[in-house]
Design a protein that fits this description.
Blueprint lengths: L3 E6 L3 H11 L4 E7 L3 H10 L3 E3 L11 E4 L6 H10 L3 E5 L6 H14 L3 E4 L6 H4 L10 E7 L11 H17 L3 E9 L8 E8 L4 E7 L6 E8 L2 E6 L4 E7 L7 E6 L6 H15 L7 H19 L6 E2 L15
Parallel strand pairs: 1-2, 1-4, 2-3, 4-5, 5-6, 7-10
Antiparallel strand pairs: 7-11, 8-9, 8-15, 9-10, 11-12, 12-13, 13-14
Length: 329
């Protein structure tokens, strides 16, 4: 089978890992990495036996697929360049700065008949993939994501940095579109929102409470799903999942059972899924549509906080989200 020629644009902290995963896949040839820091780019390129370039245009025409792992403000410009050239794109989250940019990329990928996947990596976490087939009709979800403060990723607020992972997950598990949002958040260290709590009401009645903080004393990544008579719990860090139900005895008791999971490299799983979609020309689990929908929800939450709107805000009342959440495939 012909190898997929891949490239990585942006060889920073996360981009380096993308490059390493591609280099280790037998059905992929890592053609090159693009990094503006020439010394860093050349160092990583030597390590992975590939070439380093300073300008993304230098690998156009030599790649079938790329990961774009650069600051969010550059996502639209670079992704548009490669999609327009017929190159398949794995674009890190958040997808773009604006919804208009996201819509343009979704439309362009459709016209060019190329794969556009957005890097919502938690979709590939065994804690989620193991329990998802067991769900029937979730009624309430609680997601918590916190981390100690670091300078990295402070170019966006905590909604777009951390919470957007859980916005994508709860929307997927709810199996419905968001209808109303209530949120509160605060800036403590940076000029952007550092801590946030949001409640999302979906069209089917499911409710999700989602919190995120990048100024916490500890790192935490957890999800609880209340589904009928069952409580499912996912720990993203340990990649473990549990189900709890009432016991069979006359005296009420809560019996918890661990769900079988196999620990995996979630970034590797994400990239393998991307390459698989490229090879089969199939739709990604997290396509541009899902990436755009998570961005729309994150922007509404941000807008509500920045304008001190803590009551429920219908999606339909926000002019900037006048197109609502897309449901087109």
């Amino acid at each position: 089978m012909k190898k997929i020629r891949a490239g990585v644009i942006g060889a920073g902290y996360l981009g380096q890992f993308h490059a390493e995963k591609y280099a280790g896949l037998p059905n992929v040839e890592l053609v090159g990495i693009v990094e503006k820091d020439r010394a860093r780019g050349e160092l990583i390129a030597r390590k992975l036996n590939t070439e380093a370039f300073a300008d993304p245009s230098r690998i156009l025409g030599t790649v079938d697929a790329v990961s774009i792992v650069v600051p969010t403000m550059l996502h639209h410009e670079i992704a548009k360049q490669f999609l327009d050239a017929g190159v398949h794109v794995l674009l890190e989250k958040p997808m773009t700065v604006t919804l208009e940019q996201a819509d343009e990329l979704v439309s362009l990928a459709s016209r060019k008949k190329v794969v556009l996947q957005v890097g919502h990596i938690e979709r590939f976490n065994p804690a989620i993939t193991s329990l998802q087939p067991l769900l029937r009709s979730p009624g309430y979800l609680q997601a918590e994501r916190s981390a100690p403060f670091t300078v990295r990723c402070t170019d966006v607020n905590v909604v777009l940095d951390l919470m957007i992972h859980d916005l994508d997950i709860v929307t997927s598990l709810a199996g419905s579109t968001p209808r109303k949002v209530s949120a509160a958040g605060f800036s403590v260290i940076t000029r952007e929102i550092d801590a946030v709590m949001a409640r999302i009401v979906f069209a089917n009645g499911c409710v999700a409470d989602v919190s995120a903080s990048r100024i916490s004393d500890e790192k935490k990544r957890s999800l609880k799903i209340f589904d009928g008579d069952s409580l499912y719990t996912a720990d993203y860090q340990t990649q473990k999942a549990f189900v709890s139900r009432r016991g069979a005895g006359d005296v009420p008791e809560f019996v918890t059972t661990e769900i079988a999971t196999e620990r995996r490299d979630t970034l590797l799983e994400e990239i393998k899924a991307f390459i698989g979609c490229v090879e089969q020309m199939s739709r990604p689990a997290v396509s541009g549509i899902e990436g755009r929908n998570a961005l729309a929800l994150a922007r509404l939450i941000t807008h509500s906080i920045e304008n001190s709107i803590t009551d429920f805000v219908p999606f339909t009342e926000r002019e900037e989200l006048s197109q609502h959440v897309s449901t087109d495939g």
